[in-house]
Amino acid sequence: MDWALVLILLAMGAAGGFAAGLLGIGGGMVLVPFITMIFTARGFAPELVVHMAIATSLATILFTSVSSVRAHHKMKAVQWRIVALLTPGILLGSWLGPWIAKQMNSSALALFFGIFITVSATQMLLGKKPSAARELPGTGGMFAAGGAIGVVAGLVGAGGGFLSVPFMSWCNVKIHNAVATSAALGFPIALAGTLSNIYFGWGEPGLPEHSLGFIYVPALLVIVAASMSMAPLGARTAHRLPVATLRKVFAIILYFLAAYMLWKAFH
């Protein structure tokens, strides 16, 4: 990699890490569109750029989730019983997500991501939270819920918070516990999804040098270095600024990123 690319990736990782700490969102929301732009500009195979962007984004969560979980655990906010019940389904779903993505061409995958990020941005902009309506389901229901969360997270390269937090809130889990527990779920999502992306991408024709399956390792290392250093700053800033206003601004940014991915789907 040349220094210009390293600087771009550092800036992108810093922005993603800061936003994750500030707003509690998964890095995939920001990273995937930008990584797609960068890989496209670098001349990577057009049929692989979206797959690689999603895989590389998901792999960053392996590293960034650890510090987040540690902070939430110190505050005794993580509901580890819920983590234990959701994780089996999440592991299966997060493994299947990249396999499903491999069956899709780059345009279809970009379209799916664009629609998903549009829905997520709308949820963020409106600030609507599901009303608490019931208790957590039994073991079978939790496995199914974890599987659904894992599949979507594996498909879009995100930590699953936009699905797991509303699900837990709907099931009468207090919001701060839901956010903390969702952060803990990011690790099994990233672990299974990363291993799946390595396995199903291994030996894929057209991958650039220094790829590990669909993961582009140089970009992963640079992004992780920047995002892990900026996430704590974002978390501290969240206590000083009007986060509700920032969420609305960020939602508008997400609409632009969604528009790019939708454009990418048809070009």
Automatic annotation (TrEMBL):
InterPro entries: TM_pro_TauE-like
PANTHER family assigned to the protein according to its UniProt record, in alphabetical order: MEMBRANE TRANSPORTER PROTEIN HI_0806-RELATED
Topology relative to the membrane: Multi-pass membrane protein
Protein name per its UniProtKB record: Probable membrane transporter protein
Residue spans crossing the bilayer: 6-36, 48-66, 78-96, 108-126, 146-167, 179-202, 214-233, 245-263
Localization in the cell: Cell membrane; Membrane
Keyword terms of this UniProt record: Cell membrane, Membrane, Transmembrane, Transmembrane helix
Superkingdom as given in the UniProt entry: Bacteria
Any one GO CC term of the record: plasma membrane
Similarity-based family: Belongs to the 4-toluene sulfonate uptake permease (TSUP) (TC 2.A.102) family.
